Description:
It is built from 10 helices and 12 strands. It is α/β, with parallel strands linked by helices.
Amino acid sequence: MSWQDKLRQVQPYIAGEQPRIQNLIKLNTNENPYHPGIKVKEAIQRFDASKLSLYPRPDADELRQALADYHHVSEQQIFIGNGSDEVLALLFLTCFNGEAPVLFPDISYSFYPVYCDLYQIPYQKIPLNEQFEIVKEDYYQENSGIIFPNPNAPTGLCVSLHMIEDILKHNQESIVVIDEAYVDFGGESAVSLIEQYPNLLITQTFSKFRSLAGIRLGVAIGSQEVIARLYDVKNSFNSYPIDSLAQVIGLASMQDSDYIQDNAQKIIATREYTKKQLKKLGFEMPDSKANFLFIKHPHYDAQTLFEKLRERGILVRYFHQPRIEQYLRVTIGTQQQMEIFIEEMKKILEEEI
């Protein structure tokens, strides 16, 4: 056997395109179009660069406490990692260790099967119904864990806390993970259920709501026992994961939550405007509660629309996979960006007639 045969081979997650082309309207990776806030800017300006010669605080305790206060839980119920993707990777390794499959929707965040393949975790994709909705009864079966986003991605659809609670009641021997990357754009957080259900774990991110995709901060919220086990696994990899500047920026963001919430309300208003305008053009879409829309036109090919938009300097996300190959995911940008998007889409549709 050669050394090449000993290398692990996996099919990696493919992130949305990050082009170097200038002046694109970038609506493909669900980034927040607004500034992260003056307190973040001031914190960066005040930061003492000489501190970078020292290791950061290993558990980011000030930021953990700020998050605990915000979510009305204890500091011991907060875990912080380098973006929610790292948090998810660690929780797959920590929480999903049974022989039965981990369950998640067939149309969902495409990193989930990547983690399972990487860690050799058995999994089963549970089909959404024809309306792209989760059917709770499909999760009332033997499993080693359950995970799904709420709102779901790329559909943007939410499930109720009542449904989440039903799933928890039927899976008291498994960890149930609710991935709340987009919850602040119209969903309802399940944090309120943690005290009643110690097998519930919630993940969130600073990338979307808080406009901080560039610093990589992710959060898990759960029972003290689960969070302690997550830190045990994390410390087996790297005991200093959150750098000093990221901790400072994250804390400043927590202190500016009212401003950030105002930005979220702008995005919600623009999302509803964009829905209305797209429906006038004949597009169909689920009722998104996220900062993106999942759209299709019954008479136009999605890949063709994707390519024509890119030619016009507008980048959206196209998924070439079963059931959703005729859909585009469109991030909600500023009101001005979305007005340009609508006008260019009108022109494309007129050309295709």
